Amino acid sequence: MIQHKQTLKQSLSAKLDLIVNDALYLPGIDAIENKATLLEQLIESIRRVDYVAAVASRHISANRSDPSSDYFDPIRAAVLKAQTGDIEEASWLVFLATHFGKASRTGWLLTKDVYGALGAGYNWTWPLVSTNPVAMSQWIAGNQAVLRSGGRKFGNHRKYESLDPAKSNSTGEVIESYVNWVMQHGSHAGLFSHALMQSNGDPRLAFGMLYRSMGAVKRFGRTGKFDYLTMIAKVGISTIVADSTYMAEATGPLRGARLLFGGATSANLSAAVLEQKIQELDSVLGVGMQVLEDALCNWQKSPGRFVRFRG
């Protein structure tokens, strides 16, 4: 493992040097410590992206998909469902994991208790929710006090979400909008197949098409859409591939790109210019948009000293 990491680091370092020699100026890594930290963040991001593939390569216990079990994990559950051909439930679990997020202290507890209906004897599965999303909205509204107690929390990236139906775009409304988005094509399988068909089988164009159409899902901004769609690919539900970092809508990744290409997080470089430079960067690094988006976001928080950030 250590040897593999060292080999990967040396390879990425040599590619960064090649990029600089080919006149794509990277002033943000002129300082040795900045380059070293960026390399560490790239490796950490590659590890996170490869994590789901590693999970899929191992046996997954059925407890992982059972919300009555303490071992419930929506991502592992999605992988398991996808492996058994249940694309609909796998996609739904990815959505729930993305919407609620993983809390730093209590993990997937909120997702677990919503999906498992607080142990009421049934689960909020896709067949149930897709035919009556309003029923799930009403259930969340009626159980919001319990769902907000006992350490149940949204993940850091979703910390501004609300279970309260009195508030605009609450979780119930988000779920209803998601169901409506998917059911325009009858199913998740239909949604993803349609995007690939309309894109003539190009997985990058299909990703872009889905990203834009997902604007119909309430409270899913750049991060939510990007995280959902990239996880759909990682779980093995669809062959889509991120075509962009969608820098124009970014915050952390935008600051990171400005630091890398302009030498400061406030550098006067437009998102369009940065997106083009990132495409050039990846043409040599070959790590993909998700790795670059994640690594740049985390690197700009501490460019001279590696810190492991968890979302």
| Integer tally of domains | 2
How would a textbook summarize the main sheet?
Answer: none
- Count of individual beta strands: 0
- Give the averaged pLDDT, no decimals: 95
DSSP helix count?
15
Class per helix and strand makeup: mainly alpha
The radius of gyration over CA amounts to 20 Å
The span between the termini is 24 Å
Q: Give the H and E element order.
A: HHHHHHHHHHHHHHH
Helix content class: 55-70%
The unreliable regions are none
Give your account of this protein's structure.
The protein is an all-alpha fold. The protein has two domains: 7-54 and 244-299, no CATH class; 60-235, no CATH class. It contains 15 helices and no strands. The protein has helices at residues 2-21, 32-56, 74-83, 87-100, 109-115, 126-131, 133-142, 144-147, 171-183, 188-198, 203-213, 222-235, 252-262, 271-285, 289-299. Helix 7 (133-142) packs antiparallel against helix 9 and helix 10 packs across helix 11 (203-213). 40% of the residues are buried. The model has no long low-confidence stretch (mean pLDDT 95).
Describe how the helices and strands are arranged.
Layout: H1 2-21, H2 32-56, H3 74-83, H4 87-100, H5 109-115, H6 126-131, H7 133-142, H8 144-147, H9 171-183, H10 188-198, H11 203-213, H12 222-235, H13 252-262, H14 271-285, H15 289-299
Helix pairs in contact: 1-2, 2-15, 3-4, 4-12, 7-9, 10-11, 13-14, 13-15
Concise structural overview:
By secondary structure, the protein is mainly α.
